């Protein structure tokens, strides 16, 4: 199976961050060969480190042996101190560099080092943190620059359009204000229920529960429930606020049976089911990821649920029907019962399969003994002395003759 590779990189803008100290990161939308699109954040020094590594790995293509052979694009070294002005003016250079990089021959553009650099890191997936004291500032790149960054190989990135169903007021600079009826384009759909959107010249995070697709809502984007369940662990405590939610403590192991786009997944604990914020869940079995998930949750809150939004106005006459918790519990119980019955059958099946493979007929317990008796071979009659003397070997005939003579003398 061919490994995925980067097909297109689009520069969306940059962010000013103040933790652990003031610095700037560029927002890059990476389109992969499997048609997935991921938003990542990289500093300019990181980009330049990648550039230097590629030059060391491919000295001929970098022009270090013969200048005329150079095909790897150039990238100016970073300054000692970055300012907002220098970060902004460098956007055009970085956009051109990314475009040229993915258009290089496959042995460079698809090499493992470059591919790993553009993969999503844990810090790229950090959701907005509305309660932090210092907010990140986002600066969006101009549309003209984006047009110049179009790739002939992959084509333009087509974003899904959604409509806002209720007014949303941002609580951090990560987010954007929206009004009922606004049309937005979805840049990234995060599993935690916060989606990165653009509306005219604004970009930021918005709760998925405030958005609806422009197309027919019956075209469900969400996966069907999986009552087999996936094992996850809770990374934070949550107390249920709605009747269909479930309260869990830190470190509990549960089963996720339905992943919903609004970030509120349906989980199962024993026979109990309920909605639980996915941002407080981490896949079981990886201790390092679990601890990292707990660390990055500080100051973060789950997105609001659709049921808590007031004055929601949908353009669709009929919205998608949601399953009730009674339906989840009923279907889950039915699945577990069926699984229990199947496991008992499977426990007996190996012996049956071996019997069938050896062509051994199936017999009932009551008649097995009689059938075994009927199938026992018949003992042949003992040959007469005359027949032995006629057909057997010399030694055998001699023994029979001796036995016969003793018998006759004894009589």
From TrEMBL:
GO terms for molecular function: phosphatidylinositol binding; superoxide-generating NADPH oxidase activator activity. It is found in: Cytoplasm. GO terms for cellular component: cytoplasm; NADPH oxidase complex. Gene3D superfamilies: Phox-like domain, SH3 Domains. CDD domains: SH3_p47phox_2 (cd12022). Residues 157-216, 218-286 form the SH3 domain. Residues 293-392 are annotated as: Disordered. Keywords: Cytoplasm, Phosphoprotein, Repeat, SH3 domain. Residues 4-125 form the PX domain. SMART domains: PX, SH3. This is Neutrophil cytosolic factor 1. It comes from Lates calcarifer. The gene is LOC108879330.
């Amino acid at each position: 199976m061919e490994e995925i590779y980067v097909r297109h990189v689009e520069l969306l803008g940059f962010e000013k961050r103040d933790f652990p100290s003031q610095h700037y990161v560029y927002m890059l939308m990476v389109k992969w060969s499997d048609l997935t699109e991921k938003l990542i954040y990289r500093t300019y020094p990181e980009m330049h480190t990648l550039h230097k590594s590629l030059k060391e790995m491919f000295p001929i293509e970098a022009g270090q042996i013969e200048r005329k052979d150079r095909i790897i694009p150039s990238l100016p070294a970073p300054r000692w101190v970055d300012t907002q002005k220098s970060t902004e003016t460098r956007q055009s250079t970085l956009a051109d560099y990314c475009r040229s990089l993915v258009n290089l021959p496959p042995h460079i553009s698809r090499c493992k080092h470059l591919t790993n650099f553009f993969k999503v890191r844990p810090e790229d997936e950090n959701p907005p943190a509305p309660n932090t004291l210092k907010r990140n500032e986002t600066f969006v790149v101009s549309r003209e620059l984006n047009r110049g960054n179009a790739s002939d190989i992959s084509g333009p990135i087509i974003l899904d359009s959604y409509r806002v169903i209720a007014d949303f007021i941002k609580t951090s600079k990560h987010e954007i204000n929206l009004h009922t009826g606004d049309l937005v384009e979805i840049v990234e759909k995060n599993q935690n229920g916060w989606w990165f959107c653009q509306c005219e010249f604004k970009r930021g995070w918005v709760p998925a529960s405030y958005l609806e697709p422009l197309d027919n809502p019956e075209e469900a984007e969400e996966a069907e429930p999986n009552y087999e369940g996936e094992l996850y662990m809770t990374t934070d405590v949550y107390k249920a606020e709605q009747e269909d939610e479930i309260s869990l403590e830190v470190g509990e192991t549960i089963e996720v049976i339905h992943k919903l786009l609004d970030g509120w997944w349906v989980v199962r604990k024993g026979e109990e089911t309920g909605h639980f914020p996915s941002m407080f869940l981490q896949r079981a079995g990886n201790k390092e990821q679990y601890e990292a998930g707990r660390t990055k949750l500080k100051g973060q809150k789950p997105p609001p649920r659709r049921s808590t939004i007031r004055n929601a106005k949908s353009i669709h006459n009929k919205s998608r029907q949601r399953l009730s918790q009674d339906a989840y519990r009923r279907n889950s119980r039915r699945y577990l019962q069926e699984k229990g019955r199947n496991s008992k059958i499977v426990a007996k099946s190996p012996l049956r399969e071996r019997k069938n493979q050896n062509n051994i007929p199936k017999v009932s317990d009551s008649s097995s003994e009689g059938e075994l008796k009927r199938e026992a071979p018949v003992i042949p009659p003992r040959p007469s002395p005359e027949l032995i003397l006629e057909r057997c070997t010399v030694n055998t005939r001699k023994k029979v003759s001796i036995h016969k003579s003793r018998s006759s003398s004894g009589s």
